[in-house]
Amino acid sequence: MGVMSLLIVSLGSALGALFRFWATTFINRQALSESFPWSTFLINMLACFLIGYLTSVVTSPLTQILLTSGVLGGFSTFSTFANEVVTLFKQPNTKKLAVLYALASLLGGLLLAALGSQL
């Protein structure tokens, strides 16, 4: 991996993290539900769709690593998702919600990545 690739991924990651912060702030202001982690779910679903789409249409290797490893890598987050599932599962009244969230994220992410790759 060359220096240019490292710089491109770094720039993309920074942009993705900013987009995530803004999107999280916006989604949380909408207060869809305080018990379900809507911001992480919606952000990760969008990222799954976009990565499927971008890997099928972007041909430039540098542009692809900028957008996929960089921007979408900084935008989406598996660690936050995992922590939210564990937190929900630890609470006495949200175990079913934890399972629903995990299944919806996994199945929704796979479906959206596949859909994005078909466009």
Structure description:
By secondary structure, this protein is an all-alpha fold. Helix content is 84%, strand content 0%. The protein has helices at residues 3-30, 38-57, 61-75, 78-90, 95-118. The mean pLDDT is 94.
List the keywords.
mainly alpha; globular; 5 helices; 119 residues
Write the layout of secondary structure elements.
Layout: H1 3-30, H2 38-57, H3 61-75, H4 78-90, H5 95-118
Helix pairs in contact: 1-2, 1-3, 2-3, 2-5, 4-5
Q: What distance separates the N and C termini?
A: 30 Å
Overall strand count: 0
Whole-number mean pLDDT: 94
Listing every helix as H and every strand as E from the N terminus to the C terminus, the arrangement reads HHHHH
Structural class: mainly alpha
Largest sheet entry: none
- Low-confidence segments: none
Oligomer: single chain
Number of helices: 5
Global outline: globular
Strand content: under 5%
| Rounded radius of gyration (Å) | 16 Å
Helix content: over 70%
The gist of it:
The chain is mainly alpha-helical and 119 residues long. Helix content is 84%, strand content 0%.
